[in-house]
Amino acid sequence: MFFLRAFAKLNLSLLVSEKRSNDFHEISSVFQSISLADDLYIREISERKLQIICDFPDYPCDQRNGLSKIYSFFSSQLECGFEIVVFKRVPIGAGLGGASSQMACFLKFLFERYSIVKTFDDLRNLSSRFGSDVPFFFDGGQAYVTGFGDNIEPIFLYEHAAYILFFPPVSLLTSHVYKRFDELKASHSFRDSLTCPIGTNDLLGAALDLEPSLALMLETMSSLCHKPLFMSGSGSTFYMPFQILEEAQELYHKLFPFQQKFSMCFCHST
Question: Given 154, 186, 221, which residue is the final one in a domain?
Fold first, then answer.
C-alpha cells in the first residue's frame, strides 16, 4: 500500500488573455499550494486495470477521471494494475486544482516506482497534456505561472500565516467560466499578475454572471468579516489571506455559526 497526499492550490492573482488562435487563453497568475489536500491510497493488483474507489458526491470513478487517463496512457509500460482509494477533501469545481494535483501525484508515483519516462524533466513536459496546471503540483510552493500554464517560476512574493476558505454550495466548470469570460469581454487588456494587487481575478465577473448567488454570498461575508474575499481560479471557492495566525483563528471561530449556509476551511501555505 502506498500513500500520496495531493495538496490544493490558490490563485493569489489570475489575469487572463483573450482566446488565442489555438483556442486557449494565456494566463499570468501567482499560484500558492495550501495544506488542504486529498489523500490517495494505492495498492498494486494483478489485473492490468485501474479501479478507483471514492464516496465523495459527483467524483467520477470511471474513464472521465484523470487518474484513469494517465493509467490508460502508460498501461503498455506497466505489468500490473492499481486500486486507488481516494479520500477527497478538496471540493469539486472549486478552482483549487484538486484533480490536477491528484494527477501530478500519480504521475510522480509511476515515475519513481516504474520509470515510465527517462527523466523527471520528461515527466514534467509530458504532464501538461493531462492538464495545464499539472506541472505546478510537482513542486508546489508559490510560483509565477504564465503562458498557457506551462511557464512556472518559483517566487516568494507573499507571506501569509493562514487562509480561511469559503465553499459556496455551487460548483463551476472551468470551461463554462472561460466561455462566459469570452462572451463578456469584447476587448480586454492582458496584464502582468506581479503588478496587480493580491486577489485580482479576471474570471470573477464571468463566475458571478453564471452564478448570481455568489455575488450575494461575497457581499454578505465581506460585510460580516470586515475583510475582502477573493476568488481562486475559475471559482467557486473564495478565500481570505492573513498575515497574523491568531487573527485568522479568531475570525474562523467567530464564523462557526454560519457553517449551515456554507462550508469553511482553515489552512496554511505549503
Answer: 154
Nearest Cα to 42, choosing from 87, 73, 97? Answer: 87
**Which residue is associated with the grid cell 492573513?**
242
Q: Of all helices (H) and strands (E), which one includes residue 146?
A: strand 142-147
Strands of the sheet with 238-242, listed across from one edge: 230-231, 238-242, 162-167, 263-267
| pLDDT digit string, tens, across residues 54-71 | 999 899 999 999 999 999
Taking a C-beta distance cutoff of 8 angstroms, is the pair 242, 269 a contact?
A: no
Q: What is the pTM of this model?
A: 0.94
Residue 29 domain boundaries: 2-154
Q: Is 130 helix (H, G, I), strand (E, B) or coil?
A: helix
Strand partners, 166: 238, 264
Q: What is the set of active-site residues?
A: 9, 133
